[in-house]
Known about the structure:
- The protein has eleven helices and ten strands.
- By secondary structure, the chain is an alpha+beta fold.
- It has three domains: 121 residues, Butyryl-Coa Dehydrogenase, subunit A, domain 1 (Orthogonal Bundle); 115 residues, Butyryl-CoA Dehydrogenase, subunit A, domain 2 (Beta Barrel); 145 residues, Butyryl-CoA Dehydrogenase, subunit A, domain 3.
- Strands 1-4-5-8 form a four-stranded mixed sheet.
- The longest helix is centred in the middle third of the chain and has 37 residues.
- Bound molecules: flavin-adenine dinucleotide.
- The site of flavin-adenine dinucleotide has 21 residues, from strand 1, strand 3 and helix 11.
Amino acid sequence: MVFPFKSVLDYEIKFKPEHEMFRNFVKEFMEREVAPKVSYIEEHNEIPKEVLDKVAQQGFQGISVPQQYGGQGGDQMSLAIFSEETAKICPALVTIIGANGLFIVPLLLYGTEEQKIRYVTPVAKGEKRSAHATSEAVAGSDVAGIQTKAEKIDGEWHISGRKAFISGGDIADYFVVLARTSPVQNKRERWKGLTMFIVERNTKGFTIGRHMEKMGLKGSHIVELQFDDVVVPDENRVGPEGEGFKVAMETYDHGRIGVAAQALGIAQAAFEKSLNYSLQRTTFERPIIQHQMIDAYLADMLMKLASARHLVYWAAYLADLGRQEYMLAASLAKAYATEAAEWLAEKTISIFGGAGVIVETQVERFLRDVEITKIYEGANEIQRLVIIRQLLKQTLGVDIS
Ligand SMILES: Cc1cc2nc3c(=O)[nH]c(=O)nc-3n(C[C@H](O)[C@H](O)[C@H](O)COP(=O)(O)OP(=O)(O)OC[C@H]3O[C@@H](n4cnc5c(N)ncnc54)[C@H](O)[C@@H]3O)c2cc1C
């Protein structure tokens, strides 16, 4: 046993030649189509529509969606590779694509065949866009504390409430929305009584609210949503009534590998910029890479980068094998990669000196972007709770949740 796993083979990661081909394809696409627009995106806080359309047309909204529902039929490893390569150039694009994933995954896991055909297929093909609405101003980590309600009247659901922080809500056609459908019976089981629904953008009573200005990931937007007696048919319910918490949690287990890979891409970009600058910048008549303190920074950067990369690919590989341990690995990868990326981003600013805080140098944005990856899809404090709960479950069969 290699605690907490059974064997050293549990740490295996295998790639296929297709993974490297896909990486090259994404890299070339991002360098050609997106890299020239990065300054514009940062300055205007907007990704041009033609770029978003090209990304959608490439099928990137449906990488891991089965081909029968309009997707590419790829695996979690391909999705991680996509997130990493895209985040090296434009992390906000990963968030925009990720918002679609957070709509698609619950439907693939719990949706009816009709829901998959009607909603997943156009999103995977890039014909429509979608978003995931769980969080509220009053409840983020505490998903069971949401106050949006849905009541069943004559076979239809009436939804009322407000959501906040919803990525891609400004451009989405379809939303999954979590609402409370029955009151809390006892405190230990607050998670019961939530249900997830599909809501289409033009439904009566549904309003896209204000944009919430944020520090990083410029070009991806978060908005508030308002539901004033929004009526949807029972066919729009995703999964069993009262089981929405479980649907949401399983969705985030998948999503957090993508966030870890997004942070990995930011860290990789920060490292490459730091290395180049250290070779070019001279102080005291020598390139700064000849100062030992700078070498120590660069060496530590590479250690953290390599560790984060292994955790991300390992989590993706376990997920592709269908191993339950992927949940633990995904939380380890998410917390570690995002914090490693934060460390690298901060050290990149140190290596650049004054130039590091000048916006034009495009270095300070690494730090602004990476801070958000530590928070969404389960803040890192929550990841640490998940890590210990999963560890106890797997090794001792003890459930302390
Ligand atoms: C840019 C951005 C995009 C987002 N996109 C979406 C989206 O598309 N859809 C969506 O539904 N949501 C989205 N969110 C919301 C996001 O998921 C929440 O912000 C996140 O879950 C944290 O919730 P909170 O902000 O309410 O913080 P809180 O839950 O109030 O937490 C505050 C602090 O307390 C800590 N904390 C809370 N509970 C515990 C605990 N039990 N133990 C230890 N520490 C704890 C947290 O880790 C954090 O440090 C987005 C957020 C951001 C910033």
